[in-house]
Amino acid sequence: MIDMHVHILPGVDDGAKDADMTRAMMKRAADAGITFMVATPHVYRVEDQLRNRRALRVARNIAHEAGLKLNLGCEFNYRALIESGTQELDAFCLSGTKCLLLEFGCDHLMPRWDAVVSEMMDNGYLPIIAHPERYSYIQRDFGIALEMSSLGCEMQVDACGLMAGMLSAERRTARKLLKEGLVSYVASDAHSPEDYDDFEKAYRTFRGEWPRKSRLIAQLRAQRKERTEDDS
Q1: In whole angstroms, what is the distance from residue 177 CA to residue 171 CA?
Q2: Angstrom distance (rounded) from CA 191 to CA 35
Q3: Closest by Cα among 14, 26, 32 to 58
Q4: Backbone angles phi, psi at 177, to 5 degrees
Q5: What confidence score (pLDDT) does residue 217 get?
Q6: Rounded to an integer, what distance in angstroms lies between the CA atom of residue 89 and that of residue 117?
């Protein structure tokens, strides 16, 4: 099972604070059935990814010990997208694909977001919207999520959003996104080992609705096939 949104690199953001915490998170992830992870540290400025690449070396050694495959992506904040533009984003995409995990603001939608998303796609990139259930404008107006999907964006819902408080807008929105078939990924968005408790609960609760097809997974499979053919 893949976890394509996790803050597991040691000492780079609000996730794993050190290598010991990275090790504990990976052990808990493996126990929850995860076999492949994409580390997605926050990127608010384009230079943040240099720091993340240094931390990846440490985390990969720990992943090898845990029997996990670990690649690097990031949670690319819309402010970094404004800074960098929409043409040269390969260094920020997930696992060497053309898929970019894109984080919008929780309270205010990025101006001209639809034009920016369309331009990204014209340049060959696939925006994956991180945890749309958290965004207050989608909680108020579900039509925004429908519009994002119609433009070609994929959606990534957090397991903790699906298992949030009974009357919370986050839970209601996450479950509606899943029910309407708009979710391409359920991820842990883990910042600590305990976050995998929600991941396991969400998988048990929604196993029959768990998304299994996405363009990220298709691109990862294509990568593996190319490597196999090259080896032969």
Answers
A1: 10
A2: 18
A3: 26
A4: -60, -45
A5: 81
A6: 13
CA distances from 152 to 8, 55, 70, 133, 170 (A): 28, 32, 27, 18, 23
Task: Give the per-residue pLDDT at 23.
Answer: 98
How do beta strands 36-39 and 75-77 pair? unpaired
- Judged against a pLDDT cut of 60, whether residue 232 lies above it is answered with no
Q: Provide the Cα torsion 216, 81, 153, 10; round to 10°.
A: 40
Report DSSP state, residue 40. Answer: -
Sign, CA torsion 136/148/179/212: negative
List for the chain the helix, strand, coil content (%; round to 5). 50, 15, 30
User: Order of strands across the sheet with 2-6?
Assistant: 2-6, 36-39, 69-72
And the tokens for 32?
A: 């929850």
Mean pLDDT of the chain: 95
Predicted confidence (pLDDT) per residue in 215-231, tens digit = 888 888 788 767 665 66
First-last CA distance in the chain: 26
Residue 103 CA to chain centroid, in angstroms? 9
Q: What is the largest CA-CA distance in the chain?
A: 55
